[in-house]
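Per-record layout

source: Thauera sinica
name: YqjK-like family protein
length: 127
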Amino acid sequence: MNPRALELALLKQRLQMRAEAERDELLRHLATVDSVLDAADRVHDRIRGSLRWAREQAPLLSVATLVVLAVRPRQTFRLARRAWIGWLLWRRLKGKGGASLKPAVASVLLRLLSRLRAALDGGAPGK
């Protein structure tokens, strides 16, 4: 056999072996990614199930919210304010439209919440 042909055959064999090793390594890495994606799918399914349950139990959850509001109004309004601000931040991070209105809406709502808090505390607004 021609020495050049033999050299090319050996090179081809080495390249095929290297490609097989790289494929095996890639499959090992993809197995890790696959397990992470499976975990994310399970979390996503649980969240969807929880949201479906919450939609089905909306009247019960509304009554529970009203009871908590009646029993602990300050904490409820504080939590509502934090949730609203978190929602605004989340929408801003996601880049939803209407960004110019958000600070105005947030300031109006914060003033409204402070007046509600002052009314519940029995004091003057802006306390």
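summary: Residues 91 and 97 are 9 Å apart (CA to CA). The chain has four helices and no strands.
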